[in-house]
Structure to design on (215 residues):
């Protein structure tokens, strides 16, 4: 699909600082005159936020891995149709906190679901979405979980360290699989330093010297 806008996704383990970095990037882009839409997954639309509540509620202990994967894909498909594709069509820059790689990492590598099946379901959910760029904030899961200790953990964060290790290793396999789309940034330093690394990749993508890739 061809459009004039650009989609930039921020990925990484829990506690890597994605939310802070999305905000820093959005503010800088806005100062430069870009029209920016900030969103997050799961969520970003009324319906997707309802699905988010179901997914993250620690009370929903009986949820099967396949149900989990389909709910994430459902929330995603609504966000793509309602927010992302219209924004890209009108030339905006969309910054999204997590996207489809989260499903491959958490439901694929974390839960052990079939990767090919997950790819198919998610291609269906993406509805023809074209090239985008993914910035991976790299932080070992031990560090991320430590950073998140101060607040109440959601259903996924309550998984044990072995789960979060599989997720992190999964992300690293995805980086090898999608080298044209995923750019890696060291998330262990101060937010301003992380932002500077992100900005290099982001401006290359906006200028077109980095083309991004499809899912
Ligand atoms: P998020 O809101 O990013 O939580 P945090 O800000 O604490 O990182 O995401 C909520 C949780 O959902 C997070 O633990 C990762 C998980 N997740 C999946 O398992 N699959 C997915 O497809 C997505 C988008 C998120």
């Amino acid at each position: 699909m061809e459009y004039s806008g650009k989609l930039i996704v921020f990925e990484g383990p829990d506690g890597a600082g994605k939310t802070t970095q999305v905000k820093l990037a959005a503010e800088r882009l806005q100062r430069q005159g870009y029209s920016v839409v900030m969103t997050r997954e799961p969520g970003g639309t009324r319906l997707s936020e309802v699905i988010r509540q179901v997914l993250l509620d620690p009370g929903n202990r009986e949820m099967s891995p396949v149900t989990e994967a389909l709910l994430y894909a459902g929330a995603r498909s609504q966000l793509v149709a309602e927010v992302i594709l219209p924004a890209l069509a009108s030339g905006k820059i969309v910054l999204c906190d997590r996207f489809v790689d989260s499903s491959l990492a958490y439901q694929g590598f974390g839960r052990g679901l079939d990767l090919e099946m997950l790819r198919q379901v998610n291609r269906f959910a993406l509805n023809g979405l074209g090239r985008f760029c993914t910035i991976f904030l790299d932080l070992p899961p031990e560090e991320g979980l430590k950073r998140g200790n101060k607040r109440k953990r959601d259903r996924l964060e309550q998984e044990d360290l072995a789960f979060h290790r599989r997720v992190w290793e999964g992300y690293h396999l995805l980086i090898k699989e999608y080298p044209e789309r995923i750019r890696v940034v060291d998330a262990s330093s101060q937010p301003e330093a992380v932002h500077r690394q992100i900005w290099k990749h982001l401006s290359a993508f906006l200028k077109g010297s980095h083309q991004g890739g499809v899912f």
Notes: The chain has a mean pLDDT of 96. Helices lie at 18-31, 46-56, 65-89, 100-110, 115-126, 141-147, 161-177, 191-207. The CA atoms of residues 104 and 119 lie 8 Å apart. Residues 14, 19, 41-42, 56, 72, 97-98, 102-103, 106-107, 154, 156-157 surround thymidine-5'-diphosphate (CB under 6 Å).
